[in-house]
Amino acid sequence: MPVTIKDVARVAGVSPSTVSRALTTPALVQAETRARVERAAAELGYQPNRAARGLITGRTGNIGLIVPDLTNPFFPGVVKGVQSRARESDFSVFLADTDEDPSAEAGLVRALSKQVDGIVLCSPRMTEEDLRSVIGETPVVMLNRRVGQIPAITIDNIDGIRQAVAHLAALGHRRIGYVAGPRLSWSNRERARALRTTTNAAGIDLVEIGNFAPQFAGGVAAADLVLAAGVTAVIAYNDLVALGLLNWFATRGVKVPEAISVMGFDDIVLSQMVSPSLTTVAQPQEQIGRAGVDMLLQLLEDPDRAAAARRELPSQLMVRHSTGRAPSN
User: Fold this and answer.
1) Can you give the residue ranges of the HTH lacI-type domain (predicted)?
2) 3-class secondary structure for 152-197?
3) 60 CB-near residues (< 8 Å, 6+ apart)
4) Measured on CA atoms in the order 158, 164, 167, 173, is the torsion positive or negative?
């Protein structure tokens, strides 16, 4: 027979209602009593009934996670971080993929809000108007985007770009290209803005190319435009785009980094496996996911305090073999 809350109460010497409070709202129970209940539950192997607990707390014990593209190797790291941190707090994760379709995001938020306690919204592409229209339906924390006072975890794009430009400038590059990502991407806009400011201050010409899909095919599509731009180095919106550039340059017989230097953004696992290995700006993917769940849990416990919370995580340049000195000619 499964262990029940009455069994735990009998062993702990308290009432079933006290067991319930100790396991669902421990702050309402004295520390000594709570410890006795937790010890009895552990000894008996008691597993709380999630549905019953939900009736008491008004919580589902579920978190929603919406990502734009699970085939992008950046996002599985974020998912892993979200799941591990949620599991530590006894939450399950409902995962949804929008396939880079901004129109699907609002519908998914509305659908999930009926089944979860809150949503982690990763790199959302929807307009600010659409975003604001769904925020009131359930607690939301955004990753890789900032809009007004919505709680958010972001990466220091400005410092990441500063490190990238400083590296290329030290190698003698004076004309740099940027293969831009999705037009609706907040990260893309932040990186483009930081590039304009940083290259202008350094006296470096910046050539902005595109907007392209944040995928391998996007880099392939941009490659000939990069060569036609006459740049000696190119920074891609993300690593997948950079890998597409490397592939097409190899097809064209363009040597990297001898003829042109290539740099990505994200530090996905594949960036170390190609030849030449990809110089990139690393983002702490699992840490982003964990931080997002931390902020969401704070929002659930204390909505007023966490309502406008923001946290920025550092980025780090990873120098590998796809960047080198600018061609002398």
Assistant:
1) 3-57
2) EEEECHHHHHHHHHHHHHHCCCCEEEEECCCCCCHHHHHHHHHHHH
3) 54, 115, 116, 117
4) negative
Helical pair 5-12 and 16-24, crossing angle rounded to 10 deg: 100
Hey, how many other C-beta atoms are within 10 angstroms of the C-beta on 89?
Answer: 13
- Tokens read off for 91: 């939450």
Q: Which two tokens stand for residue 250?
A: 């190899």
pTM above 0.85, yes or no: no
The crossing angle, in degrees rounded to 10, of helices 74-88 and 285-301 is 40
Q: Which of 89, 68, 142, 137 is nearest to 109 (CA)?
A: 137
- Please tell me the distance from the alpha carbon of residue 283 to that of residue 268, in angstroms, as a whole number: 9
Per-residue pLDDT of 125-166, as tens digits, reads 898 988 888 888 889 999 999 998 899 999 999 999 999 999
Is 224 strand, coil or helix? helix
CB atoms within 10 A of CB 204: 17
Contact assessment for residue 151 and residue 294, using Cβ atoms and an 8 Å cutoff: no
Question: Strands (DSSP E) along the chain, which ranges?
Answer: 62-67, 92-97, 118-122, 140-143, 152-155, 175-179, 205-209, 233-236, 261-266, 279-282, 310-313, 316-318
